[in-house]
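Section 3.1: Structural characterization of target chains.
Under the original work plan, the team committed to producing a structural model for every single-chain target entering the pipeline before any wet-lab resources were allocated. The record below documents one such target. The sequence was received from the expression subgroup and is listed exactly as submitted; it comprises 380 residues.
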Amino acid sequence: MTSPTNAQNRRALIGQSPRLVVKIGSALLTNEGRGLDKTAIAAWVAQMAAIVHAGHELVLVSSGAVAAGMTRLGWKERPSSIHELQAAAAVGQMGLIQTYEEAFGAFGIATAQILLDHDDLSSRERYLNARSTLRTLTGLKVVPVVNENDTVVTDEIRFGDNDTLGALVANLIEADTLILLTDQLGMYNADPRKHQDAVILSERAASDSQLDAMAGGGGVLGRGGMATKLRAARLAARSGANTVIVGGRIPDVLNRLMQGEDLGTLLYAQDAPMAARKQWLAGQLQVRGTLVLDDGAVQVLTTSGKSLLPVGVRQVQGQFTRGDLVSCRALDGREIARGLVNYHADEARKIAGKPSAQIHDLLGYKDYDELIHRDNLILV
């Protein structure tokens, strides 16, 4: 999706997003704690099904497991004990996923449950495994239903809220748009509970520092308030995704957003997706190894913008795992590029200098033709 230049284009391009992440909060899903609101869920699912049938890839990040479990267990207040929270999540997750499976099944769409914790996304290898799984599922027109793995997660490895998880999933699958469905109509310029003249912000850059003073706290059922949604929008913007914060109870809200209607608050990324991703790549990871390239590979990378194939690699230095950042150097030692490698160091040594057609014979499997895909490569 190209980088839009004005508000009208940004709104219009939501409907052209090849890949979207939709996050629904606990207050919406449980009708403010009264149990799973299956009527509302059916309405959102119908809209998401229409998006999938129109050819878009969609991942659903769903809160509600703990809140649904609290209802099933007869608890009125969110517990503070981590073990009680885990128990509530385990109980609630059963009903939540069954509800989604039945609702999407009515439209001929399969669902898949994905439970993640911080370790899954902090480990580069597990990060890429999760990414591959999600991308494979969405490519098959399956809707992954993602939630934090509340049944085993501890405070030390907790994302903190599903707004943050939604943003990290948007980063993970390189989504174009993150839609945060909330119990507010959007983000206001002041707290509407305290200021009757507060107005909804239609559009702002996610990086706008003035937004910090406008964000508030969380509610009783969930951990996420407007401050977490702003933080999520900024996380999503790192990979070039735009974020829409919008009221989930607005009739036909998702379809109307896809049609470019001015609903909620659009917090946009200031860099195009690929530029943002490569900035992140250049600045966030530590180099774990080196690939020494022949002159032909150097020429291809610097002039053609293509991927790095094993055949162009003369030497593999260091120990690294799949997904680590490696340096690509010419024979004279000059650093040409950096990128995320698709194979472990020992595997890279076996396939270095060989055509991609031989990877399966040399390793016993082949996930990629490229040692580094061009989308994960940045020239230096």
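Residues 217-224 have pLDDT under 50 and may be disordered.
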